[in-house]
Write a structure and sequence with these properties.
Order of helices and strands: HEHEEEHHHEE
Number of strands: 6
Number of helices: 5
Bound molecules: zinc ion
Strand order of the largest sheet: 2-1-6
Radius of gyration: 19 Å
Shape: elongated
Largest sheet: 3 strands, mixed
Distance between the termini: 37 Å
CATH class of the largest domain: Alpha Beta
Helix content: 25-40%
Strand content: 25-35%
Length: 141
């Protein structure tokens, strides 16, 4: 499942961050997930907890916090930033779902609400990033 593949990648990245920082225990991992990833937040939090390696005591008491980052589009012509809902206006929900699934299709459905240009890019809401890893460092223990 999508959530599990992402969770596995996040857990590995969090462990690398803990290694780099010399942490002996990780208390919390904050993750930002783009709206376009189409994940279910609760399932993702569950998947993160399930993805902790059994032989990794540093993650035994880790709390995973997931925040969803709304999708935003930025016009390359006038630099206007807008959401898919802004741009779609009266378009059907089916269109919105299709675009969510394949953001590259957005250009076929609408233009910039400010200038009408179809030349825009997804400027937020695509990726999965770790915004913070909180832990106890060796010298504090
Ligand atoms: Zn524009």
């Amino acid at each position: 499942m999508h959530e599990y593949a992402l969770a596995d990648a996040v857990v590995r990245a969090a462990l690398r961050a803990a290694d780099d920082a010399g942490m002996v225990a990780v208390q919390a991992v904050h993750v930002r997930v783009g709206e376009l990833q189409q994940i279910k937040q609760e399932l993702f939090e569950f998947a993160l907890a399930e993805s902790r390696p059994d032989d990794e005591p540093r993650l035994a008491d880790t709390a995973f916090h997931v925040a969803v980052e709304p999708a935003a589009l930025t016009c390359r012509v006038c630099s206007h930033t807008f959401t898919m809902a802004d741009a779609l206006g009266s378009s059907s929900k089916d269109d919105l779902e299709a675009i969510h699934f394949v953001p590259e299709l957005a250009h076929a459905f609408f233009g910039c609400p400010s200038c009408g240009s179809p030349d825009f890019e997804v400027s937020a809401g695509r990726g999965v990033t770790i915004s913070a890893v909180e832990g106890v460092q060796a010298e504090d223990a």
